[in-house]
Task: inverse folding
């Protein structure tokens, strides 16, 4: 499984949907069920984006399906970023915990 960050900005329609239903994003996140992908966390953020979702997915197709479903269900414009822990880019693995992924993988042998 690979880690992805979905950066979301509410569209005008999305803001109206959220105003009408303050639990919209929470409910949509809970109801998304895409095989091969799991939403690990959802965060409201300040700045250019309104929300960040952390997703663990088998492949780009699975994360694209989550992105589409979340966008349609919430009115978010989503930019998807694949993420690689910086420790994996080094020639040797470091003992520094900052160099390793901090999320729990379902397959610990990887």
Result:
């Amino acid at each position: 499984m690979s880690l992805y960050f979905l950066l979301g900005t509410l569209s005008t329609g999305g803001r109206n949907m959220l105003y009408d239903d303050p639990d919209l994003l929470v409910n949509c996140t809970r109801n998304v069920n895409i095989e091969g992908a799991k939403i690990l966390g959802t965060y409201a953020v300040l700045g250019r984006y309104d929300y960040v979702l952390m997703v663990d997915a088998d492949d780009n197709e699975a994360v694209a399906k989550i992105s589409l479903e979340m966008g349609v269900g919430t009115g978010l414009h989503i930019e998807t970023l694949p993420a690689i822990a910086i420790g994996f880019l080094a020639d040797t693995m470091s003992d520094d915990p900052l160099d390793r992924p901090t999320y729990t993988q379902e397959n610990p042998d990887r």
